[in-house]
Protein 1
Amino acid sequence: MEKARSVVVVLCFGILGLCNALESPQYTVVHSESDFEIRLYRDSTWMSAPVKDISFDKATKLGFHRLFQYIQGANLNFSRIAMTAPVLTSIVPGAGPLHSSAYFVRFYLPVKFQASPPLPLPELNLKPYAWDTHCIAVRKFSGFARDYNIVEEAEKLGISLSRSPWANSTSSASGYAYSIAQYNSPFRIIGRVNEVWVDINASELDGCKLSGVAAY
């Protein structure tokens, strides 16, 4: 098992040639395969923007626009909040218009604001989201995360899990099917990193191992 770490992601703005170290949520990799890994994420607080739309692309842009206003000072403390990674879009099937998906676009709050997040201005329709310690299956993919490829990547993760001790262990407790984590600025063209996240039912106290099943 890898040592728990506070992940620092380097976000490079390809056009401007600038790089900034960004805070990310803490996790431990408890199992790793060539095409997926199981992570144990620690308690954390995020700011969440609900969006109802047909398109993942459009929903992510709309939600992040509100979150960006928030971190630029549109909160009751007028606090400016540093950018973090990833930007997380969680998909809720069938909850949006025309029975399409609804989404939650989420921003991880820096350690400085974890205990007491600045309250957003009411018109932004944002809410703090408390994330308990839990286990997540993760698949990485490159390029831009778009409507045409996120379902395919999620299906690939599902196939990988079906061949592992975590088969049939995906969790419905979160209320969403899966999430897409994006780590890069839209200006970054080459070397982009995205991930599909799926919550799994496993014991956090036992390193995300399933009850009665030894992880291989």
Protein 2
Amino acid sequence: MGPGKDNLSDSVSVLTQRQLDKFIRDYRIPLDFNPVLPSKDETVYPFRQGKFPLYTRVCNFANYRVPFSNVFRYFYEFITAGDWYTFAHRKGIPSPSGDERSSLKNWKDNFFWLDDRCLPVEMVWRFKDQSMSFDLGEGFVFNHELARALIDNQSPP
């Protein structure tokens, strides 16, 4: 059985070191986040201690960047999809991507590890039995200039 939504313990990466090096250059991943290619038989779950798996296709197709920031939260909201947490584009906000997709197939086989400090400090890990708020809230602060630059310079379709 290939990687699916209920079997992350079967999900391995097919990235090569050469592909990872190019991805790091192209997307300007800071080297101080210690990007590491998984071994050929290493699954995405369980996570490596102190690491976060980054799937390359979220950068390719949704214009994500590392480190993540509140600008990301401006464009996307956290949603549930069955037992999964995922992101959906916020309604009424221009897209930072020229190729906004409702579904992306075969994305789980291209990941690598980054230090988990690339995640926002305020990010809280959630579990399916916990409630979540999707609102930005009145005190939400983000870099408006960066958001405008991402809209004006969308990732190519």
Protein 3
Amino acid sequence: MESQSNDKVTGGGGTKGVSICDLILRVSALFLTLAAAIVIGLDKQTKFVPIQITPTLPPVSVEAHAKWFYLSAFVYFLVSNVIASSYAAISSLIVLATRRLTQITIVFDLFIVALLFSANGAALAIGLMGYQGNSHVQWNKVCNVFDRFCERAAISFVLSLVGSIAFLALVAVAALTLHKRISK
């Protein structure tokens, strides 16, 4: 009787243990979101930009800096990836220790998916603004000046997006497992 109630409480393992697919996805999500946070956290570039004050004077070179913490969307992106990688590490240890995937873990997986996708959307929107500019509000593109900064940010966005998809796959696997258990 007790084993039947345990099977209903667990989402992806029950008494059979957690699947290898779940562990691979958790570890992948851990390393992808951690790498995304590290890449964006170390992203900075300094350039000397020529500024023309008047047409009769020669341009003046001014030192300009691009750093990730200058943009609040990038701060949100970094913090979200740190939270996701921390959660992936903790949940991997819990799943390995208990050999089961509880429903609360599935709920937290879903929360992390929402957090990461919202952070990816915010950072991508600002990154696209830097890449293309916005002629309606007279914002110039900056990726033609800070090319290395933008390339590293793009790498970080891709890593985080793949990590988000790994968390989404975790939720999908758990939902399929729950569906199979319910339909039996």
